[in-house]
Amino acid sequence: IEAGGNAWYVYVLECSDKSLYTGVTNSLGKRFYAHNSGKGAKYTRARLPVRVVYYEKKRDRNSAMRREAQIKGMTRAEKLDIIRKINPEV
C-alpha cells in the first residue's frame, strides 16, 4: 500500500463475506487501518476483516471520485475482472 501525499486513491476492499466495497481516500494505509479497526464505513464494520484487493492512484480528488462512481456502477463480475488483472488471487 502506497503512502499518502498529494495523490488520491480509489480502492476496492473484499470483506469477510466476500462482498466488495469501493471508496476513495488520500491516505490508503490510514483508511485501510480505519476500516479494519471498525472506524471505517458502516458497511464494512459488520463485515470485518477486510482486505485491499485493488487500488488506483489518481492525481486529484475529483478524478478519484469519478473513477469510484464508474467502479460502483459496474456489476460484480466486471469489478472482479479489473481486480483479477492485478490480483489473480481474488
Series of secondary-structure elements, N-terminal to C-terminal: EEHHEHH
Rounded to an integer, what's the Rg over CA atoms?
12 Å
Largest sheet: 3 strands, antiparallel
Helix content: 40-55%
Question: How confident is the prediction overall: mean pLDDT?
Answer: 93
- As residue ranges, the low-confidence spans are none
Cα shape: globular
E-strand count: 3
What proportion of the residues form beta strands (DSSP E)? Answer: 15-25%
Provide a descriptive summary of the structure in words.
There is one protein chain. This protein is of the alpha+beta class and 90 residues long. The chain has helices at 28-36, 42-45, 61-72, 76-86; strands spanning 8-14, 20-25, 51-58. A three-stranded antiparallel sheet has the order 2-1-3, with helices on both faces. The longest helix is centred in the C-terminal third of the chain and has 12 residues, at 61-72. The model has no long low-confidence stretch (mean pLDDT 93).
